Amino acid sequence: MAHEVEQMFSVREMPWHKPLTGDRTTVTEDFPQTFEEARKLAGLDWDPVAVPAVERLITVAEYREQVVAIVQQAPAMTEDETTEALITLYERSLRTDKEFRRIARSDNRGTLSYQRNSYNIIPNSAFGEIIDSILEAEPDTVQLETGGSLAEGRKVWMLARINEPVRLPGDGSYTFPYLGITSSHDGQASCAARLTAVRIVCGNTFSAAEAEGERTGAVYSFSHRGDWRSRMGEAREALIYAREQTQQFLREFIPTPPEGLISDRVAKNIAEARAAVLGFLGSETVEGAGVRGTAYGLVQAAGEYLDHSRTARTWETRMNRSLLRPEPLKAKAAKLALAVASAS
Q: What is the pTM of this model?
């Protein structure tokens, strides 16, 4: 089954499919200490390798008959002659494909796919390096949340938690975005890095994360036709720039008072206000209009926050801010949004 989990790990949370996969799912109390530990828990402590693709020219039954014939003649031949005859039979029974290679697992040699010679493998062992590079993190400091494989290793993933809480519009709850690395060794999809709100734990969530990336554009694909390491900087800029741009805007739009002049309550209010603006970035006004990641999107989110979320002492105050008087903070938001956009 394409969506069957072969092996995976999950930090703290029990995946819904646990009864289906038995002891192949490991739930840990804390994040793995190293990528190698996470890789082993996820069942990814192997890599795809390329081996010659061969075509069998005779059936197994025919091959067996000819081997028996050679063995029966063995008493009349020297040991070297017998060996040479068996080798010749083997070579004539198979033909190596000059255009394609077989992509196999390094641990059990199971076939993952057949690919042209130009196909460049991106191994499971690279996932930690890709995550660290995109997040610009020191090795083994990223919190790896889940990881695993589907369909006997043809689809694999590793999910890292990004410690930036985002307030969702509507119910006001919090979630944590993730950086997910997904890859299909069956040749059906490329290796991709994606910013996602989907916690990947199974085939359905794997597909949901892919669909989300198509919708939001927060995904970078590493081609199997070139050197993936040479594109790490490009991937980092493509995925992280919009997040850094937003954080810079928030720091200046809702600034933090100088150190020593801020109380715990003020710090909490600032964090909640910034989270509210982040939440409006996912609203119909911004993301629904296709302007998320732009200066205009930042202005629209700031406007929604100022009109609908910012605390007002009375309804008259809110009316004055929204409709009757020019709001200086809206002008500030427009100026800051243009500044961070022009700095890109």
A: 0.62
